[in-house]
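Notebook entry, cofactor series.
This is the third protein in the set we're modelling with a bound small molecule. For this one the ligand is zinc ion. I'm keeping the input format identical across the series so the outputs can be compared line by line later. Sequence and SMILES below, as received.
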Amino acid sequence: MTKRFLHITTLFVLMISVVLTGCGTEPAANDSGKLQVTATTGMIADLAQRVGGEHVEVSALMGPGIDPHLYKASQGDIQKLQQADIVLYNGLHLEGKMQEVFEQIGKQKPVVAVTDQFAESSLIASGVGGGTHDPHVWFDVKLWSGALDRIEAELIKNDAAHQADFEKNADAYREELAELDQYAREQLAQIPREGRVLVTAHDAFGYFGKAYDLEVVGLQGLSTDSEYGLKDVQNLVNLLVERKIKAVFVESSVPKKAIESVVKGAKAKGHDVKIGGELFSDAMGSAGTPEGTYPGMVRHNVDTIVKALK
Ligand SMILES: [Zn+2]
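Returned structure with ligand:
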């Protein structure tokens, strides 16, 4: 960390403290009487909205195409976090640049990492941004339903009057996720053994590969914060040529340049690799589209991968 960065961070934290103290300890005002939930990623907001239903108002800080690894809270975000009754984030250092903000806001209200009760044994060891585990847990649908449980418990704790509704909603969504998990399993099973390699720009699909039996290779490390070099490109090109891999994938929240250079490299060696399509990795699609929901995002990825590798 550079001295300049440290300095800016310190200033920023001071700024937040001043604003927070200015607001006092009164609960955030909201006219609707509904529980105000602010989530970092769309995937978390999706869970909170489905469980909370009509009793919550949910907003997500990070919209379509936004990279959570590099994301820094804006002044507007700080305001949303202050107005929230509950703040939900992924944890496992996914939101690597927001740790200090969470700590500050956490002095005033529940700030919950939805993965904080995941069993250590369910996590993939390998750190990012100072963490010790892969943060991309939402791509194992069964595992992600643990985040649903966590959010259900937190909503009940903060709004006990609507416990029955929260439980009913959570049960229904749990069932839908179980079906989605089954769908992913059945679809991906169609890819022949030798073709079960998923090549993407960054290592977002570790849990996906583990859950659905695909080998996963990323050009970049677990965080988009890490640089890739010529050597990484060359290694990946060699792998594509040797294993005769048919397609690689770009990601909605990562620049496409990196993976395109790999395709070019393979072509130069006489191996034609297709770009199999765009996968949603660290952010969902636009609101109002099928990919703007968690199940829609997973289905899109599964269908895109199966179509390109079958
Ligand atoms: Zn990522």
